[in-house]
Amino acid sequence: MRKVIKEEEKEEQATQLRMLQVKSDLRRRPYGLLEGVGMSTSGMSPREAWAAWNAYRKEERARRKEEKPKGKKSSKKKTASAPMRPILEPRKPQMALPKAVSALPVPVVSGGKTELTAPMKRETQPAEQKSTVVIPELNRRDIETANGNSMFNRGDNSARDYQRYVNRVLGWDIADSKKQQIIGQIHKRWTRKLALEAQHVPITVAGPARYNAKKYDKSEQILRDAHDFVTWFEKIEESVRESKRQYEDTSAKDAKRAEEHFKEALARGWFTSSTTIANALTPIAQYDPARFVELYDEMDKKYRFRKNTTAAKIYDKIKAGTYQGAPKAQKLLETDNLNAYRKRIDAGERVFIKFTTRPKPQLIYALKKRGWHWNALESAWSVPVDKYDKEFVASIDDRYEKYL
To answer: Do the beta carbons of residue 145 and residue 22 sit within 8 Å?
Structure first.
């Protein structure tokens, strides 16, 4: 009798393990069965999914019984009847976006791959213009496995977060080839993270099933991968944002900041003479010469500036129309991977390179060997004008493409 009870306990444990394991055929599970007949399973628990499937089968049997002719048996072979109208509401087609949101990318399925149409700038822009960026799809099996092992939509949530990061990249002002490269790296990193999420079984499930909880607990690896991904993505985003900052016109903002700093220092009594007050006005001149003239005239009535100060010389140049203001960046070369420009700084004329994404150590080593160094103020690689090798910079895209 004791032996029979032990066998029954073993059989019951084996049944529980089989129920927890994800089957290879998705149609053996309630979600796959429901989606196979066109029914949405969004937000369903396994118990609700099985109840919906049983209700569907019951209604289908009743419908077949009504369609069967009474009195005479049909001699024809039974054919598979068309699936009846689902009990649950099917997935609704994507609604047309309002005009205010029409600038977002719209997914288009073509040949098993998902492409995004280019964001529309105006309503009159031709609809034929499309982006060449192809979004790699995540492993659907891993998504379903993560949903099943978590007892909620862990896999669907992960896929949604993946799409959000992809949409952020699609909104950047960079070439499609660079977007494709970055999205490919996102897909590679996210696939590894999704595989861990699919393998992870919570202890609340593994414990009652007498699983090895430590073996199926992947929470630490998932958190570590998520942290590494966010850190990597933030660096990429910052690099893309800084890649063309030198061409932005920030003179109004810089002039306002310089004026606020001057007024704060004046109110705190940091200036010891009229000459120091006059020289403190000079940073405003390079951003907004007209505002500098107004402030100079206003302060000159009170402090009587000397005519041989730097501020007085700048004032005379502005009046004569010969003052150039803050040095502007002169564009030398612009490709999908880098921007090279020439600019005058306090140390003299320099040539700078800004990469769209951070290059690998091999390319950084090659730059240092040729005399380039990192300039923190410009957030770019810098070299004196006389050491600038035009052919080397132009060949980076071809010779060093694998190092970008």
So the answer is: yes
Distance of CA 78 to the CA centre of its chain: 53
Total residue count of the chain as it appears in this document: 404
Backbone region of residue 236 per phi and psi (left: phi > 0; alpha: psi in -120 to 50; beta: other values):
alpha
Distance of alpha carbon 403 from alpha carbon 378, whole angstroms: 22
DSSP conformational letter for 304: -
CA 138 to chain centre: 16
| CA 313 vs CA 9, 301, 310, 323, 378: distances in Å | 97, 17, 5, 10, 28
| 132-175 residue pLDDT tens | 888 899 999 989 888 887 767 888 999 999 999 999 988 887 87
| Dihedral sign for Cα atoms in the order 349, 350, 351, 356 | negative
pLDDT band for 86, please (50, 70, 90 cuts): very low
Token pair for 93? 């087609």
Q: What is the pLDDT of residues 325-334, one digit of tens each?
A: 777 778 888 7
Residue 88 and residue 48 in contact, taking contact as beta carbons nearer than 8 Å: no
**What is this structure's pTM?**
0.45
**CA gap 40, 358 in Å, rounded:** 43
CA nearest neighbour of 218 among 233, 236, 203, 237: 203
Q: Which amino acid would we find at residue 224?
A: R
Beta strands in 89-157 (DSSP E): 107-110, 113-117, 130-135
